[in-house]
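As a warm-up, study this chain.
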Amino acid sequence: MNLFSEFLQAIREAVTAVAAEQGIAVPLDLSRVTAEPPRDPSHGDISTNAAMVLNKAFGKPPRALAELIAARLRPHPEIETIEIAGPGFVNLRLKPAVWPRVLNGVLALGQTYGRSTLGGGKKANVEYVSANPTGPLHVGHVRGAVFGDALAQLLVETGYEVTREYYINDAGAQVDILARSAYLRYCEALGEAIGEIPSGLYPGAYLKPVGETLAREHGHALKALPEAEWLPIVRARAIRMMLELIRADLAALNIRQEVFFSEKSLH
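Now compare it with the structure written out below.
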């Protein structure tokens, strides 16, 4: 059930009746007529723009047409009051008895309430979070994760075929900075005193496990290589471990994306 769809149909029927009264050729194009919540809740429960989008077809000022539409809607058994507002909005206030009916419908539909076939199986790609793989997620990333996942699920519930995507920004200068920062932690894991992390590098302790892993995997071998050779090795390991950290954070939110797409693969 959809209360707004129900009243949209009632509004369309009222418009059609007014058109017949006025000798207006039918069928009218009613595709732009809406029934939705007013921006200001004090204006009622449902508002329609019918008079403003159809006034040219009727050859009447919007407010005059709104009065005619309102007169047709007033006998509706579930409408308590109707007011004309602004340039010609028709605002409906529903009778209290409507809401238990709506609630009973929600309870009867259970988990299927709100689902529809609106999307018609169209494909939709929702890309969200996509934090640079240079460290753990922060609260801003988490907000985007929750919002994006809710949007993706809303599309699923309304009939779209949805892919949830994380775009990995692994081709820019930031991942080289990550690699150099991890290399310092690698040297530290080998027992070297690295002192204060230089400005421009990532100082977070979250890179210590990366350095320790590199030390276990490569021993002192990376120390014998020039930067041009060790950089891609360290970068790949650091990105992989950061993504594992990010995936774990997302899993803690029960968010799982089907596609992790690498920017580097585009270049």
